[in-house]
Fold this protein.
Amino acid sequence: MSDITLILDRRDLKVTLEDETVRIERTALEKFERIPINMIEKLIVTGNPLISCDIWQKLAERNIPVLIFSRKNGKSPAYFTGGISGNVHLRVTQHMSFQNKKLQLTIARWLLDEKLEGQECLLRSLSNDERILAICDLIKDRRMNLNKMICTNKLMGQEGVAASLYFQALSKFIPGKWGFNGRNKRPPKDPVNALLSYTYVIAGSKVLRAIFEKGLDPSVSFLHAIHTNRENLVFDLMEPLRPALDRFVLFLIDNVLSENDFFQKGKNGCFLNKTGRKLYFDQWYKWHEPEEGDNLTDFIDDIVNDLIGFFPESLDHTNDRNFDVPKKLIDDEIPF
């Protein structure tokens, strides 16, 4: 069963394929280890290890996703996977749904409603302070306004106001030593933003894999503007996930990581160092696939299935359809 995220982050690694096994050799120490390919769920590459071509081919055949992080200038990571499943009828329905502007707006509202509800739920679980509860009420007001918005631009305007309020409140729970003054990215300027960006990318790779496995078209989104050569649907489906991921980051800075687990590259941003990455993934494994209770994979599958539930079999009766989708709440008892 696939359950290992393989991380290659040393320059002196030489990675080759031996039958159905990945051989990882650390040339400077003349040491090596072997990992069966069927145990690998995901590959994460940082820096410039030497990886043979047959490894890439085998990963693609097995539909094992790969994330490649650059060490330069905080560039966005590259993502590779084996490709979309053969469910062409679902993709046709997705494209038809995108062309139906009323349905597109309905889906966009749902995505943001889920996100803002999750933000409000997270903040309420953290404190009963009147100032925090007042911000929660303001976020709730933005949620209530979503149904009044007549286009995605106006929806994103409501989301932007809510996000500003949310991170303003969230900063109250982050000690000053972390230097967090609100959300920033490309590159992240402090450890908390580095963790948020890193966690969103890792989770986004799981979302993209779920999109491919279902047979959806990752380029066709309903909330975010469509850009060429970008997995736009991932950005859509990440929205309901973000509050849960934010809770995980809060757990890390409160219980696991220290300032020494990051390195600063001036204007190029702040990033986890090798020690920090090890600590991070030790907790990621425990958090996103716990032995008991809810897990991130099921959460993602629920969101993808809920999205597909909006797609009518035919658009002939779209206006008569009731698009009630069950709410996905964040469980206050989940430790993230």
Summary: The longest strand covers residues 40-46. Residues 101-126 form the longest helix (26 residues). The two ends are 26 Å apart (CA to CA).
